Amino acid sequence: MRTRRTARQAAERARSTRVRGSIRIGALATSFALLVLVTRWVGANAPAAAASSSTVPGCQETVSTPIPQPTQAMLDAAGLGDLPLASDSARRDLVAAPFSDPTSVTNPLFPVGELDSAILNGHVDGKVFHTETTLLPFTKIIEWIPGQCVRVLVSQYMAFLGGSLQETAIDLYAQADDGSVWYLGETVSDYKVDGLVLTTEGTWQAGIDGPFAMIMPSDPQVGDVNRAENLPGNSFEEVHVTKVNQTFNGPSGPVSGGIIGSEIHQDAPPSDKLFAPGYGEFRSTDGPDVEAMALASPTDSLPGGVPAELTTISNGADRIFASHLTTPLQWTRAGHIARRMLDAWEAFRAGDVPPRLVRPTSVALRNLISKIEGQRRSATRSASIDAAYASNDLQLRYRPVTEIDTMRFDLWVRHALVDATAGSLGGTRSDVVTLEWIRDRIAQTLDPVTLVRLDTLVAEMDVAVVDDDLPAAAQAARDLRGVMSGLI
Predict the structure, then answer these.
(1) Which of 40, 107, 365, 410 is 20 to 30 A removed from 47 (C-alpha atoms)?
(2) How many CB atoms lie within 10 A of CB 159?
(3) pLDDT tens, position by position, 322-337
(4) From the centroid of its chain, how far is CA 324?
(5) Whole-Å CA distances, 336 to 142, 342, 382, 408, 456
């Protein structure tokens, strides 16, 4: 997993970039979906030995290789010449060890290959910030210099600011034989609140745009330095390890063996970043803005099935969303259900609950009660979705990641239905974009016919948004909910 720059940093960069507001994300997501299918087919049909670069046509046996570095003139041209960058003697990332098993990414401080899903949250510019990172079920081959190829893991990152999709990225990682983890590129999209692409700045791929970069040394020590990104003018981050053997408060209790790095950015003041065993990037700050680990799977997974209290919250949210909410009796029943949901939460939070998920859940449930008391139908339905989402996040400790993502997909279908019914074109567009991305997390779990039905209906919603036909978008959302009813 990889945490991104904050929304403020993204906005500052975007203001200096020509806004691609007329570009629809649907085309980008569809293109990536095709790439996913092709990559998945190649991965499924490639021999097991394909992890070795020597089995890839045109690629040589992997060897230790010096990493090309930007010159001082390049740093000056990007406005980075005055940054307090480290000398070569402190750098750990000037030579890459061979990559004989690159998709086995097990470095405890950046264990992407063993971290199926992670939730981070916090606040940015006074708004709620929520991120989801998911390891996707396929790999990709990158030729980073002529003849030297690396098979990489593919990780999906999605960030939500104030409840709306704010950024997505596809990140590429591999581990060298010495245990260091390397970053081989990212495909970035920043969004406006109406679902239109604001900018794709920050996108890069090793071998096309420049060298790859070390994101975590094998055994970092105080004074070690690595560049997590090393493309002046596009993406540049240099991390100086300042503390090791640290203990942090984690989702399931104290986490020892962590490190702290001071990160020098291309476009922001230096800031501290924490890394923890079993989690990877653990906490980032930028002035008053914070993004921190809330829950990870399987690191924080527990046995025993979903607790009854969380089931009560989810089932209650489903019942409220399904209610017509048009009569006094229906509003009274909704109020009773919401209060039982809150009672269940109060009982559950008295036990072992990841600390950073306590406030979001409490806020969601109290907001639901408030909307019911005001008898605001559309707002109540939206609040019921938020309550269900909060419960679903907590259930990541007890359920497989694909089940959690299937439920997330259904909840965003509900969002699309509410927004389309309320006449919010921008909201519906943002919902459809979100669905297009989450789809890639669950596609491999669906039978071919169901996947075609799902893709067809999402495409219908996309076309309806383009045509400004919200009734058609709402109908497609209803039909899609019918498909999802057999999956959750």
Answers:
(1) 107
(2) 25
(3) 999 999 999 999 999 9
(4) 34
(5) 56, 10, 18, 25, 38
Residues 6+ apart with CB under 8 A from 226: 91, 92, 93, 213, 214, 215, 216, 217, 238, 239
The Cα–Cα gap between 464 and 443 comes to 23
Euclidean distance between CA atoms 457 and 443, whole angstroms: 14
Question: CB–CB of 427/461 below 8 Å?
Answer: no
Q: What is the pLDDT of residue 266?
A: 73
Give pairs for 38-41: CB < 8 Å, separation 24+: 39/138, 39/139, 39/140, 39/154, 40/137, 40/138, 40/444
What is the signed CA dihedral for 21, 198, 478, 422, rounded to 10 degrees?
-70
pTM: 0.89
HEC letters along the chain: CCCCCCHHHHHHHHHCCCCCCCCCHHHHHHHHHHHHHHHHHHHHHCCHHHHCHHHCCCCCCCCCEECCCCCHHHHHHCCCCCCCCCCHHHECCCEECCCCCCCCCCCCCCCHHHCCEEEEEEEECCEEEEEEEEEEEEEEEEEEECCEEEEEEEEEEEEEECCEEEEEEEEEEEECCCCCEEEEEEEEEEECCCCCEEECCCCEEECCCECCEEEECCCCCCCCEEEEEEECCCEEEEEEEEEEEEEEEECCEEEEEEEEEEEEECCCCCEEEEEECCCEEEEEEECCEEEEEEEEECCCCCCCCCCHHHHHHHHHHHHHHHCCCCCHHHHHHHHHHHHHHHHHHHHHCCCCCCHHHHHHHHHHHHHHHHHHHCCCHHHHHHHHHHHHHHHHHHHHHCCCHHHHHHHHHHHHHHHHHHHHHHCCHHHHHHHHHHHHHHHHHHHHHCCHHHHHHHHHHHHHHHHHHHCCCHHHHHHHHHHHHHHHHCCC
- Residue 194: burial class (beta carbons within 10 Å; 0-12, 13-18, 19+): middle
Report yes or no: 445 and 400 within 8 Å, Cβ to Cβ: no
> How far is 456 from 445, CA to CA, in rounded Å?
17
